[in-house]
Amino acid sequence: MTQLVRDAGEMLAGMTPELKSGQYVFCAAGDRDWTLLQPLAMFREAEGVSLILELGAAEAAGFPIEAPMALITLNVYSALDGVGLTAAVSGALAKA
């Protein structure tokens, strides 16, 4: 099994980012039946259910579209208690 990395510098050095094809959107499910939409991710919070959907699926379901986004998979075996990776990647994307 691959060793999990906790150090942010090692995480950055070892990752191999991959831009996936397609566009994705963040949607608030509201009262809609989203169970057949095959979301990439689903978050259940006090305010309700939020989904990450492929753009076409969100459009077909009638969700309002605000900001289509790309999907980047970092391909790094980071430990859950490792810190700094998200901040470093966000900073690099903000400069791009």
Explain the overall architecture.
The chain is of the alpha+beta class. It has 2 domains: 1-17 and 74-96, no CATH class; 19-72, VC0802-like (2-Layer Sandwich). It is built from 3 helices and 5 strands; from the N terminus they run H-E-E-E-E-H-E-H. The strands form 2 sheets. The chain has a 3-stranded antiparallel sheet. Strands 1-5 form a two-stranded antiparallel sheet. A hairpin with a 2-residue loop joins strand 3 and strand 4. The longest helix is centred in the last third of the chain and has 11 residues, at 85-95. It starts with 7 loop residues before the first helix and ends with a helix. The model has no long low-confidence stretch (mean pLDDT 90). Residues 9-69 form the DUF2241 domain. InterPro entries: ACT-like_dom_sf, DUF2241.
Brief account:
This protein has 96 residues and is α+β, with helices and mostly antiparallel strands.
Labels describing this entry:
25% helix; 96 residues; elongated; alpha+beta; two-stranded antiparallel ribbon; VC0802-like; 2 domains; 3-stranded antiparallel β-sheet
